Amino acid sequence: FDFPVNFTESSARRLVSIVKNGPRCGVYSLILMDSSKKLPYGFNIEELRQLAVVFESEGAVSRSLSNEGEHLMGEKYYHGRGVPKDYTEAVKWWRKAAEQNYAAAQRWLGRCYYYGEGVVKDFVEAVKWWRKAAEQNYAKAQHDMGLCYASGEGGEKDYVEAVKWYHKAAE
After folding, report:
1. Which band of pLDDT confidence, cut at 50, 70 and 90, is reported for residue 159?
2. How far apart are CA 150 and CA 124, in angstroms?
3. Which pLDDT belongs to residue 142?
4. pTM score
5. Letter string b/e over residues 135-165, b meaning 16 or more CB atoms within 10 A of that residue's CB
6. Which sign, positive or negative, has the C-alpha torsion 96, 97, 101, 106?
7. What is the arithmetic mean of pLDDT over 84-102?
8. Which pLDDT does position 118 carry in this prediction?
9. Secondary structure (H, E, C), the chain
10. Cβ neighbours of 131 (radius 10 Å)
11. b or e along 82-115 (b: 16 or more beta carbons within 10 Å of the residue's beta carbon)?
């Protein structure tokens, strides 16, 4: 959601109802809220906050997120969207999704290793995660693999292999 943009008082109440009753039915909502926007008239954000799932939990709640949800939590922490910017926390969420073969999270986890964001800089580990994503035809990771082969970071410099990955990324 892009809450509260275009939400009326009625739609905001409906959202609270969905968030309140969803877990009973196996439905969990991920709400991205722009706190700089005005809330619908008469809406109490505290009610929604009390009903929200606490994603930082290490318990059953965090395990119930989909790979995409875990990836989105990584993005929230990496960019500081609605939470304090925290690369270590972003890495934690991306690793959960990456270990379940979610290509976008694998690419971002590789990026963190490449730049040393939230983890110790490690080109070999970056290439490991980028390769996993690239082999799933994730174009950004294929491009990253090309860069690594062209520079020799994370392995042997190999221009032929670099061009191969660049071509795959461009397809």
Report:
1. very high
2. 14
3. 94
4. 0.65
5. eeebebbbbbbbbbbbeeebeeeeeebbeeb
6. negative
7. 92
8. 96
9. CEECCCCCHHHHHHHHHHHHHHHHHCCCCCCEECCCCCCCCCCCHHHHHHHCCCCCCCCHHHHHCCHHHHHHHHHHHHHCCCCCCCHHHHHHHHHHHHCCCCHHHHHHHHHHHHHCCCCCCCHHHHHHHHHHHHCCCCHHHHHHHHHHHHHCCCCCCCHHHHHHHHHHHHC
10. 20
11. eeeeebebbbbbbbbbbeeebbbbbbbbbbbbbe
pLDDT digits (tens, 9 = 90+) for 35-85: 667 777 777 766 666 665 433 333 333 434 567 778 888 888 898 876 788
The residue with tokens 């983890």 is 119
Distance of CA 12 to the CA centre of its chain: 26
**Single-letter amino acid, residue 109:** L
Give the residue from 62, 63, 91, 98 showing the smallest Cα distance to 75.
Answer: 91
8 Å CB contact between 72 and 55: no
Q: How far apart are the first and last CA of the chain?
A: 32
CB 131 within 8 A of CB 142: no
> In this structure, what token pair is assigned to residue 115?
């730049």
